[in-house]
Specification:
Elements (H helix, E strand, L loop, with lengths): L8 H7 L1 E12 L10 E9 L3 E10 L2 E14 L4 E2 L4 H8 L15
Antiparallel strand pairs: 1-4, 2-3, 3-4, 4-5
Length: 109
Amino acid sequence: MLKLIGLSDKSVKKKRYTIVASRINIIHRKELLCGEQWQLASGLLTVTTRYLTLVHRLTSKNTVRAYCYIRGAVFCMDQRGSRTLDDHALDKAKQFVVAGLRDPFEVLR
């Protein structure tokens, strides 16, 4: 998914910016047993110029087993500080937003 929005290994080396995990929240719902078939679905919850929130949902037998939320900050490796995504990358990222899920890192107002 990150590669599709312009953050491949090649572009990271060329542009010198990437996404770094600033917060991670994992919620376990039910144990996944050895040998069980499973499926992992990923998407984005929040997309801004400064950060993205990724979600991974692990399911097995039509049951959600775990969620993993990752707040990823845009980071410049040369300046060793935060950076902003350009409009092109933002537009590409928005196609992966999962509607209806709440971002656990966003403060309710």
